Queue: 4 jobs
Job 1
Amino acid sequence: MKTKFRWIYTSIVIIIFFLLVTTIAKNAQAQTFSQLTPPPYASQYIYGLSFAEYPAPFAIDWNDDGAMDFLVGELSGNISLLLNNGSDQFTTISNFGNLSLPSNSMSAPSAIDYNHDGDLDLIIGFADGSMEIFLNNGNDTFTQDTTNNLNQTNLNVGMNAVPYPVDWHPTQGSDGDIDLIVGAADGSISYFVNLNGNGFFAPNNELGVKSTIT
């Protein structure tokens, strides 16, 4: 009797083991993987380009040809312009505009026609929370605008200013003046309204965007 039960027990164990091995084999056969190979043109595309550290991109059609270009700031302070050749391939212009920017300033560039002369100007944020405006001379060389008040302490966002220029008046909607929405390292977003279009910016909380994410 013991021999009979031992034989039955052994048979059950063998059957379970066989079913387990069969299931594992089927699953291994069903799950096949292939290594993804980057496309041969990847190094020519924006996602194939690399910059030193902390690249800060800003997309804009710089040369008005209908294709999106990129301004890219870096930890070093250098700003590059990546011109779209029309098929999402880019030509890089390093040290664009030959701007004299502080080294290791972690520049975050943005662009807009600030003074309404038909040329794109630069508004750049820096690691120390400050911002500067550079006016286009008409040939992609730039002169720093010293008539604005962005150097005032109450317009410094603390660390890593990332400006986004936009015509956004809290009560009038669009008034034709360039205002600033500015991100910072502490998670805050500040709104600075351009008063009367004369480059005098003032903090404003009417948009309700001054906040800190914790």
Job 2
Amino acid sequence: MKKSLYILIGIIIIFVTNEGFNISAHPGRTDSSGGHYNRGTGEYHYHNGGSSSSSSSSNSTSSSSTISNKPTSISIKSSKTIIYINDITYLTYSLYPSYSYDTITWTSSNINIATVSSDGKLIAHKPGKVTITVKASNGVKDEIVLNILSPLKKDKITIAIGEAYNIISTGLNNDISLMTYNDDIAYIDSNNRIVGKSKGKTTVYARINGAYSWDYECEVTVVTYRLKEVKSKLSVEELLQLTPIGRIKGKEITWSSDNNSVASVDDEGIVIANKKGTANIICKIGKTTIIKKITVE
């Protein structure tokens, strides 16, 4: 009985010992550093006190990299290149890569035309072209050229009774709405023009279509007659046609000069520059007198 028990215990000891070896043992020859590759799993590890501080294995590699948070490019996010004077526009930008960040500055090439603040707030001051630049501290930048326009050609005009005047800047007629303060003096016709109705002064207001407020205005003076706007400086022997505007049909018109030696005028309003100096060309339409000063250079 005791002999059988001893035999059973011996078998158990042998079984446990073999299982332990099976758990820890695996194929693969140990190298000089005390480690080896397990041919079964492909893993490399150490025995006999070996450490990863040194290894002669050619399969062991290491690398390191530094990720920069600085942008490689910057872009202004705006498809709008036409800005009207007095407009306030907020410009924005995007950085690439999207996770990057940096200190950003905005600058204007002409602060008389438009200014831009540190947060991209742009204010248009007067007509002209201006370049707006956004720049990161590492040097990457982007820029946009803006065309600053005035919806109105002038802020003050004189027109004659019956004259239709196009006050809206070229190309913007469909973008601007007009309104007159006193349509007994001047009104807006179907072509968006100011038409003189009677002598006096009024104000015409303008706004960009879709805008809430009337941000632009023009002072309008309506007279009985006036001369078409032409240059006033001539060279010797140069000719200039003067044309009266207003309800002149059937009216008697006379022309004269107060200094014929400098500039003379014929019955059709054609001025002839004779010599250097100044002269006043006088146009009389009924009881109305219009004077045009001419300088001959």
Job 3
Amino acid sequence: MATTCYLARNPRRFHSTETTVTNVFKDLLMAVNWGQMSVLCLLDLSAAVDHNLLRQQLEHQFGLHGTALQWVRSYLSGRTFRIVYSDVTSFSGYVTCSVPQGSVLGPLLFILFLVDLADRVTKYCMSLHAYADDTQLYLHFCRSVITSSVDQLACCILDTGHWMSAKRLRLNTDNTELLFTSSSHSCATLSGRYLVLQLGTNTTIACSHVCLFGVNISSNLGLDHHVSRICIFVNYDISGGHYHHWTLSHWLYLSMPL
């Protein structure tokens, strides 16, 4: 069954990157308990929202009219940016796309702009989990249908790319990451020819682990690789280095099973 979950950056209390990691990891673990495999795909989406398309969508799809629509138009238009380096300041330029960074309304507008993505994904029985512009697709399947499942994922990603082009966004297939998850035995016997995803002219090879919001997820869903990386950072910090500024308690929190 396909599921969809959208989260903006801190729009609600108790929802954050930890929520995203927990939900995705839980779904992958549940699939193993059901005797299934999963394929997880981390998509790299551009976040440049076209203001005209967003206003049209708010008006025709969400029924925003009159003063409310004028508020949004005023909120997005007339914004400028410039670059300051040392004592040098660049000329100001107008922002004609994207949503205001660091704002409360910006991430919500971005989610509304991408709300149709769920319809595209569910056509292929894929599960979608998005935290602002960070999007994860995953599919649970039996080992006997792994070939058709990989083809199904490839078709879904290509269709998503066509949809994003129509929205004047971009799907960066070069930076797409792929991970097959299952029990240790199933992962060890998985043939290499199944670990390749063909996306047009680009080829994505499955990794042994991927990093999702700082948490390393391995193909066997173990946390050994994640804990090892934490130990490296912690040892460096204890020995007098300054590789990071996170506290030890935060690293230990990330290493706990979800």
Job 4
Amino acid sequence: MRHSTIFSARLRSALLSATSVSALLALTLGHAQATTLTAQDSMTLDGQAFTPNMQTDPSSVDLFDSQTGPSGSSGFVHAYGDVPTLTFGARSSGSGSNWNVDSKFTFDQTITNTSSVAQSYSLQFTVDNGQVSNFGSPTSGSMSSTFSINLKFGSNLAASTDVEVDTDSSGSTLTLTGFNLGGTASADSSSYTWSPITETVALGTLDPGASADLNYVMESLAIGNNAACASSIGSGGFEALAVVGSGGFSSCNDIARSGDPVDGITTGGFAVTSTAVPEPASMALLGAGLAGLALARRRRTKREPEADAIW
């Protein structure tokens, strides 16, 4: 009994020491970050390609662009990101007969493990309200709208999502891939909308002094291909406002977006955290201690079964 008591005391001491080391490591953890935000667009209307725009800044970008093609097709983009408020968004919309409108927001952050131990990294981020919608019933041609997010840590794809709505004279098809935005589809599959959603993603591990690039890309794409629509959208409502302002129109139109302050949406969230990876020697010591304690208990149970109650 004396030996098992001494062993238990030593194990408790080892566990307390391991806890103290963990607490110390938690105080000394760290990672350096260098951030670049990029907003960019591309737009082709009625066969005419407009000059692409790009903004780059370490803290805030906000890109608007609106154009009209030679045959009256129109496009609008808004891509933005703001580090102080952690609000990111991308929106593309088009109308007429032929349009290809693309907006993209990119968050690049180089993360360096500045601690003395390996770190396991994770990202918690919020995807703002959004929608992917095609409006009108094409009698010919087609429309397609897409919203996507791709998240990479180094060369590894950590998470992705993609919402696509395709519409032609036979109807609409909704395709969802990647992590679930938790949205709602319309009865005819021509529209998909979602409320803000927060995701937590495991990124990977960095050894002391190592670095990796965190690359978060949000993209919205609106396309019309020789589209002609018999139905029209009445005046008012977000759909009309999103594309051409107040009033109605008789052409096909679509929109893909997440966020966009036009709708008064300001939900934000984007945080990288790290946790120390236990060293193999410490884990082996702890495992040996627990195994020893179990063996000592089995031996004591065989010799003194009446003393089980004190354990």
